[in-house]
Design goal:
By secondary structure, this protein is an alpha+beta fold. The protein is built from nine helices and four strands. A hairpin with a 2-residue loop joins strand 3 and strand 4. Helix 4 packs parallel to helix 6 and helix 4 crosses helix 8.
């Protein structure tokens, strides 16, 4: 059975779900396609950027949005602690499309999964700027991903593929991550993994 799994490196819930998705992929007769979906967080949670004192210098979020954001990170850190993972909230809303295209480029390598996991881990420890080309290509070299040709791929084929995946996902009803599509049915959110497992069983 083939499953499409949508993630975004800037989603803490997707980070928490990634290990569980690898477990699903290890089941007999299950194939998972990892697909990046670049969230437009500002559309539903407003924009925000914190200065060195932790003050928001954008000021576009309302009180409801801030309560939702604060709870989400508290909830994710609580779950991360149970799993022995580190989640440090980012100080701004990142555009993760560059990192997503880097992942798409890496899929031709046997080290793609290692590269993918390290992006997640280091971003949530605030050790990786996923908007920075040099940081991502440095991580490619570290994980033995070919760098030559990536710059051209990023400008043309990779960007086109990224945008196509985005549009295809939205046609299928995807609006957030983590999301899984199993036999044409959409499951959104970490708490829906049990339903996915039921189908596979």
């Amino acid at each position: 059975m083939k499953i499409q799994y949508y993630f975004d490196y800037k989603s803490p819930y997707a980070f928490l779900a990634d290990e569980e998705s690898r477990v699903l992929a290890s089941l007999p007769n299950v194939e998972i396609e990892w697909l990046p979906y670049t969230l437009k967080i500002e559309k539903f949670l407003g924009e925000a950027e914190l200065n060195s004192r932790g003050e928001d210098i954008k000021g576009t979020r309302n009180d409801h949005q801030w309560r939702r954001v604060r709870y989400s990170y508290f909830d994710c850190r609580r779950e991360a602690k149970r799993k022995g993972m580190t989640i440090l909230g980012p100080q701004k809303i990142f555009d993760s499309s560059l990192a997503h295209i880097a992942y798409l480029w890496s899929r031709g390598s046997s080290n793609s999964q290692k590269f993918h996991e390290r992006i997640f881990e280091r971003f949530w420890r605030r050790e990786l700027d996923i908007e920075d080309y040099e940081s991502l290509t440095s991580l490619m070299r570290e994980t033995d991903i070919e760098v030559e040709g990536f710059e051209e791929y990023l400008r043309r084929e990779g960007r086109d593929l990224h945008d196509k995946i985005q549009k295809d996902a939205e046609v299928k009803g995807v609006f957030g991550v983590p999301s899984w599509i199993v036999e044409g049915e959409l499951f959104w959110g970490l708490e829906r993994l049990d339903r996915v497992k039921e189908i596979l069983e």
